[in-house]
Amino acid sequence: LAMGGLLKERQKQILASSVQKAQERVQNSLVSIFNQERPFLDYFKEASFPVPQLILHVAEYVLNEQLKKEIKKDVLDEARIKRVLEELKNIGGKTYGDILKNMLTKRLSLLMDDYAADAADTAKAAKTASFLTAAKKLALPVDTYKPGNIFYALLRDMPADSRASAAVKNLCIALDIDSNN
Fold first, then answer.
1. Which terminus of the chain is more exposed, N or C, with fewer CB under 10 A?
2. How far is CA 54 from the centre of its chain?
3. DSSP code of 50?
4. Buried b (16+ CB within 10 A) or exposed e, 103-129
C-alpha cells in the first residue's frame, strides 16, 4: 500500500511537470504569434479597423501576462505598466481585472502584514505606500479594505512621533485614512 501511494505521488509530479512544460510551450508560441502580428495591430489601430477576435485574444493574453509579471516585481515599473495598459486600450483589449485585482490585493496585504509585524520600520511603511500609490496612479484595481483596517488599528496605537513620519503620512494618504484619528 505504501509503495502504491509513492507511485501515485511520483505520477502526480511527472504529470505536473509535463503540464508546466506544455503551458510554457503554449505561452512561448502565443508570445511569438503576438510579436509577429504586432505590425497588424498597429495597422488596425491607425486605420480604425476592429482587431480580429483571434488576434485580439492572443494580444490580450500576452499583454495581461506582461502585467502579471510586472505586478510580481519588487517595485512596480509605472512606465512599463502604463505602456502595456495603453497598448491594451489602443487595440480595444481588456485587462484580466479580477485576476489583477486579486494579485494586487494579495501583494498589498503581504506588504501591510510585513509592516504590521514591525510598525517601527518606516521603510516598510514607505514601501507599502509607494506600491499602493503607484497602483492607484495607474488605476489598477486593488482592494484596500483589509490592509486599511490593519493599518488603522496600527495607527490608533502608534506614538505621535511615528504618526508624524513622512512614510506613515504617505500611507495614510494612499489608504484615504485621516492620520489624526
1. N
2. 25
3. P
4. bbbebbbebbeebeeebeebebbbbbb
Is residue 154 within 8 Å of 116, Cβ to Cβ?
Answer: yes
- pLDDT tens digits along 125-178: 999 999 999 999 999 999 999 999 999 999 998 888 888 899 999 999 999 998
78, burial (CB in 10 Å: exposed 0-12, middle 13-18, buried 19+): middle
Q: What is the pLDDT of residues 36-63, one digit of tens each?
A: 999 988 888 888 888 999 999 999 999 9
Q: What is the dihedral of CA 102, 106, 112, 113, to 10 degrees?
A: 150
Enter the C-alpha cell of residue 158.
Answer: 502608534
Distance between terminal CA atoms of the chain?
Answer: 62
